[in-house]
Amino acid sequence: MDANAYVDFATLAVKAGQTPDPATGALNTPIYETTTFAYPDMATYEQKSQAALQWTPGYYFYSRSANPTTAALEQKVAALEGAEATAVTACGMGAVNAALMSLLDAGDHCVASDDLFVVSTQSLQQLYPAKGIQVDRVDITDHRQIEAAIRPNTKVLYLEALSNPHLKLADLDALAQLAHSRGLKLVVDNTFLSPCLLRPLDHGADLVIHSGTKYLAGHGDALCGLVSGKKELVDRVRDYSDMLGSHISPFDAWLVLRGIRTLHLRLERQCQNALALARWLKAQPQVAYVLYPGLEDHPQHALAQKLLPQGFGGMLAFHLTGGMEAMGRFVDALRSIPIATSLGDVGTLLDPLHRDDGLIRLSVGCEGLRDLTADLERGFAAL
Ligand SMILES: *Cc1c(COP(=O)(O)O)cnc(C)c1O
């Protein structure tokens, strides 16, 4: 059945993009480990390769550009995002840079959030200025700062829907209106929430980006990036991803396809666990503050209730009253929660952010809550 006929996100997560293999009837999408595709004759070669080079769905020429397994993942994610098209890349940074390069040329200007994933920040501070593209960073919760930063040559407003690591929530409807009234494209990295909790295209974003490595893959076993939006814009992203050599491998695409089938179940548990842990952490005397949009005292709690009716996500951050020194003792006392960067895995991960003066970022997993609090209690006992 056509994915467009389903009404529930859960059904799309399980079924979209995955139709029985036309050659064999295999119910699950095969891993097409092939670099190239053979044609029976010259006329078919001409027709199919031309169609593939224009990014026509279902046409394959060479797997740097498109492949049946990676295309199945694109169809699944497009259905989840409510997008005309999705381009898959080798990792989230491949997606961020293919998207930004497709919209920004030398002489252009980009207004970007001051709170972004660290490598996105590096790209905006090093890569783009070195190539003649100016970038200004602003607090995207202050819309006057954004207005003031816009110049005649500004082309893009770039932000994270829920930001890494300080969990600032973007008022997407208002920001889309602001961006479009000034002729800018709104590009949103939605890695922290996933399309299960928020679909930025529904709120006016032009392109939505994911590090599929995180919640979509969900098991810490595959790198992946995704860019979704109108086909015209996504085709330009494909051109850049192709030139930059950023296509995903069929095997990693297959792992992400499989991971997405339980995305809604994982996030339901992760949202419950994260809200419970945020409240529990806030009640600990050694905790200075907790950042989580589901807490009533989060500065954007009202906006979060409006934008995130299904749950406030699995990411939270907290700061110990003892700062950096306390963080070291706390983290060293943990026995089950691993100290590891990355996020969105089925298992909880803790990232001690040295650069943020002792902010502890938790990517809350699907474990039982009692085991999670028991481990964190070992940390508090060591202070
Ligand atoms: C991890 C991450 C990225 C980069 O993704 P990779 O798959 O690691 O390249 C981009 N944006 C955000 C918000 C991330 O957390």
Radius of gyration, in Å, reads 21 Å
User: What would the principal axes of the Cα set say about the shape?
Assistant: globular
Strand order of the biggest β-sheet: 1-7-6-5-4-2-3
Strand % is 15-25%
Computed structural class: alpha/beta
Contiguous uncertain segments of 5+ residues: none
Distance between termini? 57 Å
Please give the count of helices.
Answer: 13
The overall average pLDDT, rounded, is 96
GO biological process, one term: cysteine biosynthetic process via cystathionine
GO molecular function: cystathionine gamma-lyase activity; homocysteine desulfhydrase activity; methionine gamma-lyase activity; pyridoxal phosphate binding; transaminase activity
InterPro entries: Cys/Met-Metab_PyrdxlP-dep_enz, Cys_met_metab_PP, PyrdxlP-dep_Trfase, PyrdxlP-dep_Trfase_major, PyrdxlP-dep_Trfase_small
Enzyme class: lyase
